[in-house]
């Protein structure tokens, strides 16, 4: 072997070692990055939301409402979903886990006829204020939607009794209701001021008289986000 051949061999060996060193450094850097990359974050579960998982059903749907008319439409949506599951998919009501959220101005429909008989005017006044419509009048019957140019011509909503029956029918088919406690506290405060009662007492009375399958939630908008973390599809029901 000549001196020239020997020098070429040493250069080739050193060059190879250099490539290996760079490759090793790259691999080491990638390994370090992999080790420092934070794990995928999963939403933390809370006891307040455990009832959402307790509802049986392979398919989960959360229907959000913020007006009395929106809640009425949500009941129709829930019925359509259940009927489609039974008739088209050859399934059963128990296959569907459906939650209707009663928040903001639709919260008034979360309470039984006994509460409407006692506090109907105040309940409807609160809903009217939140939804920007005229109060329904002395009957306390919830109106269908925003104030029209000629309020007298506005289409009336179903009576409170009819609404209560519709919610009870939906509950009988397995539909559940998320009831906004933030709005309920506001309702209790308005009732208390009008009737000269303690707001805490009114609040306790209201939550003791909620519709079947009703669940008090800290805030309806929070329940909406939590439901999606629990695998519920989202629908919004407008007026």
N-to-C SSE string, H for helix and E for strand: HHEHEHHEHHEHE
Count of distinct strands: 5
Largest sheet: 5 strands, parallel
Mean pLDDT, all residues: 82
Given as residue ranges, the uncertain stretches (5+ residues, pLDDT < 50) are: 19-23, 137-141, 143-159
Look at the helices and sheets and give the structural class: alpha/beta
The termini sit apart by 93 Å
Task: Report the CATH C-level class of the domain at 92-142 and 158-239.
Answer: Alpha Beta
Strand content: 5-15%
Strand arrangement across the biggest beta sheet: 4-3-2-1-5
The 3D shape can be described as: globular
CATH topology descriptor of the domain at 92-142 and 158-239: Hypothetical Protein Ychn, Chain: A
| Helix content class | 40-55%
Radius of gyration: 30 Å
CATH architecture assignment name of the domain at 92-142 and 158-239: 3-Layer(aba) Sandwich
The number of helices is 8
Supply database-style keywords.
single chain; alpha/beta; Hypothetical Protein Ychn, Chain: A; 5-stranded parallel β-sheet; 5 strands; globular
Explained architecture:
The structure is a single chain. This protein is α/β, with parallel strands linked by helices and 239 residues long. The chain has a domain at 92-142 and 158-239: Hypothetical Protein Ychn, Chain: A (3-Layer(aba) Sandwich). It has eight helices and five strands; from the N terminus they run ααβαβααβααβαβ. The chain has helices spanning 3-36, 50-54, 68-87, 113-131, 160-172, 181-195, 199-207, 220-229; strands spanning 59-65, 96-102, 176-180, 214-217, 233-237. A five-stranded parallel sheet has the order 4-3-2-1-5, with helices on both faces. α3 links the parallel β1 and β2. α3 runs parallel beside α5 (160-172), α4 (113-131) crosses α6 and α6 packs across α7. The chain starts with a helix and ends with a strand. The relative contact order is 0.16. Residues 19-23, 137-141 and 143-159 have low confidence and may be disordered.
């Amino acid at each position: 072997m000549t001196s020239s051949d020997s020098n070429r061999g040493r250069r080739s060996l050193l060059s190879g070692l250099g490539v290996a060193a760079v490759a090793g450094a790259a691999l080491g850097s990638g390994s370090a990055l992999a080790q420092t990359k934070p794990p995928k974050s999963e939403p933390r579960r809370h006891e307040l939301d455990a009832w959402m998982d307790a509802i049986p059903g392979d398919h989960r749907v959360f229907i959000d409402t913020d007006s009395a008319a929106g809640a009425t439409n949500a009941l129709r949506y829930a019925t359509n979903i259940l009927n489609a599951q039974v008739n088209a998919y050859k399934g059963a009501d128990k296959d569907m886990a459906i939650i209707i959220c009663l928040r903001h101005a639709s919260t008034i429909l979360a309470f039984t006829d006994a509460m409407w008989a006692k506090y109907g005017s105040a309940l409807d006044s609160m809903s009217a204020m939140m939804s920007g419509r005229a109060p329904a009048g002395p009957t306390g019957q919830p109106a269908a939607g925003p104030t029209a140019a000629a309020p007298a011509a506005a289409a009336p909503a179903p009576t409170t009794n009819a609404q209560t029956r519709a919610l009870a029918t939906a509950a009988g088919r397995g539909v559940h209701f998320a009831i906004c406690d933030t709005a309920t506290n506001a309702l209790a405060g308005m009732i208390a001021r009008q009737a000269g009662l303690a707001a805490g007492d009114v609040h306790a009375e209201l939550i003791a008289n909620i519709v079947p399958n009703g669940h008090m939630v800290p805030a309806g908008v929070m329940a909406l986000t939590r439901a999606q973390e629990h695998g519920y599809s989202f629908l919004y029901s407008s007026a």
